Automatic annotation (TrEMBL):
Location of this chain's protein in the cell: Cell membrane
Membrane topology listed for this record: Peripheral membrane protein
Organism (species): Virgisporangium aliadipatigenens
Domain of life: Bacteria
Coiled-coil blocks: none
SUPFAM superfamilies per the UniProt record, alphabetical: P-loop containing nucleoside triphosphate hydrolases (SSF52540)
Family in the record: Belongs to the ABC transporter superfamily.
Gene Ontology cellular component list: plasma membrane
Pfam families registered for this protein in UniProt: ABC_tran
Protein name: ABC transporter ATP-binding protein
Predominant localisation class: membrane
Stretches assigned to the ABC transporter domain: 5-231
Single Gene Ontology BP annotation: response to antibiotic
Keyword Nucleotide-binding: yes
Length: 300
């Protein structure tokens, strides 16, 4: 497949800190690609280097076959960038904001108004940007990144600080953006978001790519146990431990959970004991892969 982005052994240091430490990956044309990692993993710095906003100390980056640094005017009409922190012109309405950005790219006001409709902000067109909700501001920010119809879109934590409803609503928008054939590169630390949206993900920590692949493939490669849970007290813990040798059993007063690599016999045994009340079966997720690779300590 055609590669829209090629990153080879890119490095960037700030004093003694290796923000990006030998990162390599490729993004295919039309792909929804995620870059995941805890705070300080190097996600934003990596994106800024690819976008041509920051110079790498060493290594190679190609976007559509060209180097983004120094700032490459040939690439600018082909890429759209939604930064982690968005800034708008003061005291302008949503329509005025997007028409101003459109004019910078030589795009007419009709296209700008179409973008407001595409991101669901037509009813807020005459509202000043500072009066918009968090989700509406994020939608406006994405509209500004798309108004010139770029082939490649960078989104740096677009759903940060949004409530669950606004996040899911924005996911639908991001899927539509990708469905038009655009290549989308998403940086996020929301694992459910990456699992729901991305074709492939690169998990980063301490400036390095630890794993890269499709979310489902990474989950399968973890070989984590399946957690079979029923309501607490459905059967005694001692009896639950006799169901399968080697399976871990825990009862926290809410749920009785059996962690096993062979859930079939466990489910059958629970059914025989009429102990399926409140049953839930949870396999490994991308979050399990993430925590396995990056650890569980809190990152400020």
């Amino acid at each position: 497949m055609v590669e829209t982005i090629q990153v080879d052994d890119v490095r960037k240091r700030y004093g003694d800190v290796a923000a990006v430490d030998g990162v390599s990956f490729a993004v295919r044309e039309g792909e929804f690609f995620g870059i995941l990692g805890p705070n300080g993993a190097g996600k934003t710095t990596t994106l800024e280097i690819i976008e041509g906003l920051r110079k790498a100390d060493s290594g190679s980056v190609r976007v559509f076959g060209e180097s983004p640094w120094p700032r490459n005017p040939a690439l600018l009409p082909r890429i759209g960038v939604q930064l982690q922190a968005s800034s708008f012109f003061e005291r302008l309405t949503a329509r005025e904001q997007i028409r101003t950005f459109a004019a910078l790219y030589g795009v007419g006001p009709a296209r700008a108004d179409e973008m407001l409709e595409e991101v669901g902000l037509t009813e807020k067109a005459n509202t000043r940007s500072e009066k918009l909700s968090g989700g509406q501001m994020q939608r406006l920010s994405i509209a500004l990144a798309l108004v010139h119809d770029p082939e490649l879109v960078f989104l740096d934590e677009p759903t940060a600080a949004l409530d669950p409803q606004a996040r899911r609503n924005l996911w639908d928008l991001l899927r539509r953006i990708n469905s038009t054939g655009r290549t989308v590169v998403l940086s996020t630390h929301y694992l459910d978001e990456a699992e729901a949206l991305c074709d492939r993900v690169a998990i980063m920590d301490h400036g390095r790519v630890l794993e890269l692949g499709a979310p489902a493939a990474l989950v399968r490669g973890l070989a984590a146990p399946t957690r079979v849970s029923v309501v607490s007290g459905a059967l005694p813990v001692e009896e639950a431990r006799t169901i399968q040798s080697g399976a871990a059993v825990d009862d926290d007063g809410v749920s009785l959970t059996i962690a096993t690599t062979e859930p079939g016999p466990v489910l059958a045994a629970l059914a025989e004991r009429d102990a399926l009340h409140g049953l839930s079966v949870r396999g490994a997720t991308l979050e399990d892969v993430f925590l396995h690779l990056t650890g569980r300590e809190y990152r400020a």
